[in-house]
C-alpha cells in the first residue's frame, strides 16, 4: 500500500502551515490500541518467520542495495540549495511534497505532474538494481529537466530524513518507495521487510473493496503491504497522523517497469523469444485489472488535494485524524491472452507463446478493483482502455530503445 502523509504544522518538524483542505471523509478506527498493536506485530512476525525459514534467503549473495544502507553523499550548502529550489512552491495555493521512490515508474509520473501544476517537489530514491538502474537514471534526467531534484538515499536513513525535514517544511509526503514484485519475494524476502515495513515505520517516525478484509494475503509482497496498512492505522490512532493508503492495480504505460508482463512481452516478442502465458487450473483464464499510468496519477493528486492536516502535536493526538484507503484500478479486467493479441497487432509481430500453469508463488488468477470509494471521495474516474494505453506504451518503447539509443524525453 502506498502511504500518503500530510504533515501538520503543529508537529515537531519544521513549521509551515499548508492550506486547510476541505472535509471530505473521515474514517475512525474503532477498537483498542492493544488490538491495533497486536495485529501489526502478528503481520510482522509472520513475515519475519517466512524470512528466516526461506531456504533461498541464506543462499543469495549479500546485496547492500536491498539488505542494508549504502553510503550516499549528501549535505552541504550546495546540496541544501538544490533541495530548497526543487521543493519551492510556484503556485498560489500549492503544496510542498516529498516524493519517495521518485525515480520509480509511478514516482516519476507523479513528481512531473505535481511540478507542472506549480507544486514544490523533492524526490528521494535509492536507485537499487532490482531492475535496470539505467532506466531509473533516465527518469531522473527527465525530472531534472523539469526542475525536480532527486536526493539519492535510503528511506531507512533516519539522519537523511531528519535533514530533509530540517531544510524543507514539507506539507505532504507521497510515499511511493517500496520493493515491488510478487515472484521476487520468493528469492529475496528480506528486501521486502527492509523497504516495505522498516522503511515505512522510519518515515512515519519523523474485485476488492476498500473495506473488504485482507487478513489472508496471497504473497509475501501482499503481506508486507497489509502490515503497512496495520502500522498506518496504529500511527493514525496514537499520534493523529493524517494518512491515506492507495492500492494500485497493475499499472502500465511509458517509462514503466521492465519486470511487468506488458513490458517484457514487448521486448521478447520483438526479439522473437517465446513468452509464457499463464493459465489457471482447468485451463482457467488469468486476467488483470490493467490501469494506465495517467489514471493512477490523477488518483494520487486527488488524494493529496483532499488530505487533511494531522491532529497530533509533540507526539500526542489532539483529535481524530483522517485515515483513508482507496483502490486505484480500471475496473475492467482483461485476459492476459488479450493483452498479447493487442501487442501483436501494435508491434506487427506474431508472438511465440508457451502456455504454462500459474505458479503457486502468490500470483492470483484475477484482479478486479472496486473503486467506489475513490469515485465518491476523490472523483476518481479512469478513462484509458488497454488498447489506447498500450499504443502509447509501444510508441514510447520503440523510441526509447530504437537502435540501442535511448530517448531523452
Provide a brief overview of the structure.
This protein is an alpha/beta fold and 409 residues long. The chain has helices spanning 33-53, 55-59, 64-67, 77-87, 105-116, 133-145, 158-167, 189-205, 220-239, 261-271, 293-305, 336-347, 372-378, 386-400; strands at residues 2-6, 96-100, 120-125, 149-152, 172-175, 242-248, 251-252, 274-279, 287-288, 291-292, 312-313, 316-317, 323-328, 334-335, 352-357.
CATH level-3 fold name: Rossmann fold
Output the CATH homologous superfamily. NAD(P)-binding Rossmann-like Domain
Helix share, percent:
40-55%
Give me the CATH architecture, please: 3-Layer(aba) Sandwich
In N-to-C order, the SSE pattern is EHHHHEHEHEHEHHEEHEEEHEEEEHEHH
Strand order of the largest sheet: 4-3-2-5-1-6-13
Query: What coarse outline follows from CA principal-axis ratios?
Result: globular
Largest sheet: 7 strands, mixed
Average pLDDT score: 77
What is the CA-based Rg, rounded? Answer: 21 Å
Total beta-strand segments: 15
Number of domains: 1
How does this structure look, described?
- By secondary structure, the chain is an alpha/beta fold.
- It has 14 helices and 15 strands.
- The chain has helices spanning 33-53, 55-59, 64-67, 77-87, 105-116, 133-145, 158-167, 189-205, 220-239, 261-271, 293-305, 336-347, 372-378, 386-400; strands at residues 2-6, 96-100, 120-125, 149-152, 172-175, 242-248, 251-252, 274-279, 287-288, 291-292, 312-313, 316-317, 323-328, 334-335, 352-357.
- Helix 5 packs parallel to helix 6 (133-145).
- The radius of gyration is 21 Å and the shape is globular.
